[in-house]
Amino acid sequence: MAGDYIITGGRPLNGTVWVPAAKNSVLPLLAASLLCSGPVRLCGVPELADVAESLALLRSAGCTAERQGADVRVDGVPGSGTLAAGPAGRMRASILFCAPLLARLGRAQTVLPGGCRIGARPIDLHLAGLVQMGACPQLEGERLLLTAPAGLHGADITLRFPSVGATETLLLAAALAQGETTLRGAAREPEISDLAEFLNRCGGRIEGAGTSTLRIEGRRGLSGCDFSPLPDRIFASTLACAAAAAGGRVELTGCPPALYAPVLEILEQMGCTVERGADRAEVARFGRLYGAGRVFTGVYPGLATDAAPLLAAAMLCAEGESSIEDVVFERRFGCAEGFERLGGRVNRSGRVLSVGPLPESGLHGATLTAPDLRGGAALVVAALSARGKSLVEETRHIDRGYAGLCEVLAS
Ligand code: EPZ
Q: How far is the CA of 163 from the centre of ligand 1 (A)?
């Protein structure tokens, strides 16, 4: 079937890969462009399905949003507060487009966001913060209407969990709200700092990005700017885990290794060698892989939840046992069934996946179904180390966050 990946495993990887801009930075930046009165250019944006969906959302709000070579340009004032239901319902990040519409037009209408089925993923923290800032949400079935009859105003908000998305929503709302907002318990992920830097470059006043307390002074308007989003630490983690699983040597350029330090450290413990430079890392594995023992994810700077299935794929190829717990999402390891089909030893219990040791006969090719974005990429990584051919179906999940993953690996 068109779109399936066919992977012939059992060959080491060798090469240099440039790490593209981060999906999870580009999507909030595209939402932020709705706040800007001048044109916005995001430089070097990978061709991802979620980027195309985001451009469709911007167009449905009345903006011009188009690709210009490797860049994306967004221009024009949003004229409609209603987001196209199709793209909105297919992507988690669609919820981020509401706060800017609310701030500029006093109204935003959407459907509940879609995205990977890796947990319950409510939007209560987004909504509770917006209510504190003067918004009235109305939920009818799948349809969400937000209004702010008297406009948005600053507030003192404390998040009970440092949600990345809720921090982004409230940062976007506060940038044009009247008065000052203090956001406590905020997410500290690098994508938040990227968003704050973008808003400040457009004339915003945000302090504290990268810490758990953000202070935002609302502005009357924001200009546009040219901006290069930060590199994708999860893409880099994917290739690093692929080098561990398949063996060989992969150089990752254009991304500071500190952004995915926990992944590199665990791979080193497992027997890989890692050479680090300012914005490059080389991951090599020529000998055996050892079990990693027990590891768990956390919020930044801990091990990223998105990297958990990818590391699990590398663990599948180790001679010892490992276990990995995702504390962020309840159903992170939808890839476990595919790992078993490849002949891997796995046991899923709640949020914990126990992996390995590698059977003496190794892994063998199989037909696999991508369960979600990172779980799908994890199956690709595992298939690279399996003898024979594997077929990966439902690759539309993977295309949401990786541009040409197969071509990159084949090269
Ligand atoms: C972002 O999702 C990323 N997506 C995810 O990447 C990533 O896994 C996640 O952050 C954690 O790092 C984008 O940036 C587009 P959260 P987000 O709000 O914002 C709970 C990928 O593969 N929660 O930090 O949705 C939630 O259920 C994707 O690229 C609430 O309870 O994540 C979860 O348990 C997958 N109420 C936890 O917080 C809320 O209102 C963390 O979610 C919001 C979240």
A: 6
